[in-house]
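ligand=adenosine monophosphate
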Amino acid sequence: MPFKALNLSEPILRGVQAAGYSDPTPIQLRAIPLVLAGGDVIGSAQTGTGKTAAFALPILTRLGAHGKTRVLVLEPTRELAAQVETSFRDFARFTDLRTVAVFGGVGYGHQRNELRRGVDVIVATPGRLMDYLKDGTLSLRDINTLVLDEVDHMLDMGFLPVVKDIIGRCPRERQTLLFSATVPPEIQAIASFALRNPTRVEVGVNRTVNESVNHALFPVGFAQKFDLLLALLEKTDFDSVLVFSRTKHGADKIARRLKAANHSVAVLHANRSQNQRIEALAGFKSGKYEVMVATDIAARGIDVAGVSHVINYDVPEKPEDYVHRIGRTGRAQAVGDAFTIVTPENEKDIRDIQRFIGAKIPELKLEGFPYGPYAARPERPPEQRESRGQSAAHGDFAQKRGGFRGFGGGGGRRGRR
Ligand code: AMP
């Protein structure tokens, strides 16, 4: 079914066309009619499935023309707020609707001016929004559509009390849309408090890895992690690589060492100033930096077109973060590769991840890499490996799935698309 059949308004359809979308994704097909009908929705969808357009397009259609501030979208991070607001603005480019992104870490002046001039849609992180509510710059009295996005992440970041406060300041008569990868009891409680007779839309619950991503484990001894990262970068033909570290300090250290090895590197984590974060993302998107080292919090939900590879330098702490991280590559229709460097200490984490995604992740060895005496998995006979629930796919994955792109080739960066 084309977008045209979904009852979106004509200027919004033109906006969709200008964004280059041809057909709606499954979550868009399911959610757009529900949101247009005005009902409450709880949605869970795999990362990179087109969730933003699934709510933005019908919301903009319902808004019609410029008026009061009627739509509030809450996001857990500054980057997501900026990104989602950009999507709203892009889709609304053929209307007179006005949008603003509100988040901390930058000055108040510009945001306050925009709010005073009058906007239709606010996309905000909870903390900064609260500042404007408390100082009277803004009231939520005309909000008729509230979107609570990435609520599981809001929970992780301790935002739920502020979010509840904000919900309490919105009119009771409204449409509420809640998106969350998982709906544990705390989120169910928020849903019961904030939503009325919601329809649930689940599109590929967020446990699965996009079909378009080839992923593999690279076992190595702890002391050789960085050398293996360098070798992977050298042997891989990439456009842009997102490297994940568990900690902010670790991210800085990896970035320093990669710079010393002549890679152009950006760093994204919560201790960087907002300007540094904006510069890092913009530089990574434009191709100025070929590698971005990031922590989970900073990178969650970030949409960078053309991320060809994700490398988990550290295994993620939570299984769902594995899905989020590798959802950064292979978004929508693109194809991406995701490598995870694992050490013997990570055996349990990997078991948890495999249980979570319901699949084994193949193990690979990098040809020509001088594996040291502490290599992660001492060679065991294949049957023993199988009986321990580990993959025996050492080395043959590339042939089975048509191969990792550019893997084992001359290496280095290929021309950006
Ligand atoms: P999201 O899940 O909203 O972060 O979207 C993930 C990526 O898919 C973004 O780059 C979107 O621009 C892109 N996208 C969303 N919907 C479509 C569509 N119908 N066709 C093609 N690309 C899309």
